[in-house]
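Dear colleagues,

As part of the handover before I leave the project, I'm documenting each prediction I ran so the next person doesn't have to rerun anything. This entry is a single chain, and its sequence is reproduced below.
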Amino acid sequence: MATAINWDETYQQALEYFKALIRIPTINPPGNEKPAAEFIAEILRQEGLEPAVLESGPHRANVVARLKGTGEKPPLLLNGHLDVSRSRSPSGRSRPLTRWRRTACSMAGARWT
């Protein structure tokens, strides 16, 4: 029998991870996603997975991990990105506070199939 999930505790832990992740500077250009990928990889290791941090260039990286299922159900792929773009006002000036909002929800063009 599966252990019951404490959703309040899980929410608080996810929120702390999110706050730490959003503080890692990954503005593209230049990107510099490697510290964020390493942060996520460490969380996955703590959960018993074996993530790989794959570098596509200097300081540019992705994290990949697999949680093997039983094969009884179709696979599920979770996909996201670690870089963000600097938000600009209509005048072209940087807007740091808007950047944080955009960082939290900028998966434009994501497709679900």
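The radius of gyration is 17 Å. Confidence is low (pLDDT under 50) at residues 97-103.

All the best with the project,
I.
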